[in-house]
Request: fold
Amino acid sequence: MHGIGECQSRNNAFGGMIDFNSSGAEMMKRKNMWLFLVATVLAPVVWFAGVVMELAGLGAGVAYASGGFAKAPPDCTAVIAADDPKPTEKKPMYFTLTNPSKDIVVVSDRDEKFVEFFRRQRVLVAGLSEKEFEATMKAEKTSEEEQGVIYASYNEEGRTSGYGALVKLAPVAKPVAEAIAALIPKDNFGRTLVMVPDPKEKDVWHIVGLTTRTPVGFFSRKDKECTDDFAANELLFKEKK
Reply:
């Protein structure tokens, strides 16, 4: 048997002391007192929680009545990316340049003065037979073999007058063909072509213009012809230093 002193008191669930020698009525009284204290403490908490929930419900009702809750802005990034048009490839621009005497025409890729077209780049003026000229105008690809042009004159010092040159001719661009059509001689004589070198392919030249003048020593002439305000030797290439 346990001793009386050992069983006088033990800890209860609330940290208090229970006297095992007390009567049942007294124990019930103490139990009711503890329940009362708990209810007294918890009642305000429960009431406050009810008020908060009621206010939240009221707020939701007001928001719904006024058009619903504010929504986060949609992510339009994907839509915009899908709707953006693909960047269009920039088409080359062509400008037809003519000397004052109207007997030389060239087509440039920039809007510039006639004389500047020659001075900013290397240019070759040479003759081609009518038959070869017609074949070149119809060609759809660059000639694989070099062909001869006569009386080659380059707008470079020391090369302004020559007997001939071997070149590969690229297909003639449509704007060029249209621009030079009016200057093409109606006879069976040769054609005097104005050409510029391809920026990438060696020995490939592009026909960019035509003249009714003879190609013989073209860029070596010192006199101003017809109504021109410049001499041909003033069209020499001026390389930037």
Q: What stands out?
A: The CA atoms of residues 132 and 200 lie 24 Å apart.
